[in-house]
Amino acid sequence: MTAPANTVAAPRTILSRIASCLEYLAIAFVLVLVIGVVVLSQVPLIQNGDPPNASEARSALGAMKDRARVICQRRPELTEIRKEDLGLGATELDGTYFKNNDYSCGGTPESWWAECHNVYSAEPRHLRLECNLKTGEARFNR
Predict the structure, then answer these.
(1) What domain range includes position 30?
(2) Which residue has the higher pLDDT, 92 or 42?
(3) Which of 20, 31, 101, 114 is the most buried (most CB within 10 A)?
């Protein structure tokens, strides 16, 4: 026998529906919370990325290091390798963002460095490459 259509549903059925809706809301809240944490954790990575000019500076500093390493291998008697020793043309380091005067370098074969000035707006403002020309091991300051 079926219940008449105009009767009110049993209180247990209404409570189970409310509980089910609350479960869905809790799951949705947790998902929104997790997604928010993931998004907020990525914000510093996006904001601290290299500016476009940094890739030009890294490329030029790497080329200077490669040239200094070749000079070191061909002339092992040199105790210091300066920018003048690299044989760079007057405009060879000129690019979109930096000019020849923005670059400097020097040091011994065991502790050689190259630097591009005013790459970043925050300290340290320069991009520096330090290298052991004999082993080829190198690292940037940032």
Answers:
(1) 13-46
(2) 92
(3) 114
